[in-house]
Structures are given as structure tokens and as C-alpha cells.
Amino acid sequence: MNESKHLDELGQIMLASECYVIKDGKVLMFKRSDTASKFPGFWIGPGGHIDHDEDALLAAVREIDEEAGVKVDLDDIKLKGIALHHHMDRKEVWVSFVFLATIKKNQKEKKEDLEGNAKWIPLEELLVMDNVFPPAKYYFDHVLNDKPGILYTNIQWKNSQLVKSLNQRVDKNG
């Protein structure tokens, strides 16, 4: 018999925002430092923990500015997914609010950050890169192509590799 568990029984709950900013066919990505404590060396959209005094949207805007030095207006960002990522090897369950943003004018990314480096990457190049964080790649199609609705996922990972997708659905009214 398969007994259902609450998420907090699987590991520490980690709330995070991540955002993919698009401008002129390029996506703003952030390469985590090779010495980062969480998921070192991977490319991912700017993002991170949600602070106690902010919501997921404000956290996304703050993280884009902190990690990449790019400013995003609240009118130019929208929720595209809520992803549950159970990292079995880390005993962590990440609840990631995934956003898509567009910016109206070119902005230069900051190259140096203690946690890694930001770079505008052409979409075609990004889709074939090897060192993109696998959980992020899982919802690239929905987010980067701005498909209608909000994608909901619940996925198990071990050593940043897919173990099993428990479910995935799109709320087209979102």
C-alpha cells in the first residue's frame, strides 16, 4: 500500500522564485558559482529564496536585480509556473514560483557576483546547453515560449537528475 506523505515529511521546505527575462531573442541566465552550496556550476534563471517581508513576485524582481543587475518592472513580469521539486538526496523540497519577464530596453548584465555570473544567452543556444539546471529545463518549453496558463509540476530528483514526474498540468485560466 502506497501511503501518502505531506511535503514537510520529505525534507526541508525551501520557497524560491526564479525568473526568465527575455529581450530580443536572448534569455538572461545566471551561472551559479562552482563553490555555491546549492547546485554549484549550473545555469539557471536569476532567483533565490523569498525573504520574510516579500511575496514571490517581489522576490523574483529583487533576485534579478541582485544577481544580474537588471531592472524589471512589475508590469513586465508574470507567473508561468509553480514547481514542486523534491531533491531526495538533499532532503529538500523546493517550491519554486517561476516567472517570465520581458524588458523594454537593453540593459547590460553585471558580470561579477559572489554567487555567480549573469549572461544574455540566445534562446537557440540555451536549449542545447549541457550545464543548464535540469529542473529548470523541465519547464523551459512552457515558460520560454510563453504558453497560455500556469504550469504546475511535482517532480522527484536525485543528484539533480530526474527520478520521476509525479504530475504535471496546466491551468489555462491562470
UniProtKB/TrEMBL annotation:
Query: Does the record carry Signal as a key word?
Result: no
Q: Among its keywords, does the record have Hydrolase? A: yes
**Signal peptide (UniProt feature, chain positions):** none
- Give UniProt keywords alphabetically: Hydrolase
- Where the record annotates domain Nudix hydrolase, the positions are 12-144
Which SUPFAM superfamilies has this protein been placed in? Nudix
- Gene3D superfamilies assigned: Nucleoside Triphosphate Pyrophosphohydrolase
One GO MF annotation is: hydrolase activity
Name of the protein described by the UniProt record: Nudix hydrolase domain-containing protein
Q: Which organism is it from?
A: Candidatus Woesebacteria bacterium GW2011_GWA1_39_12
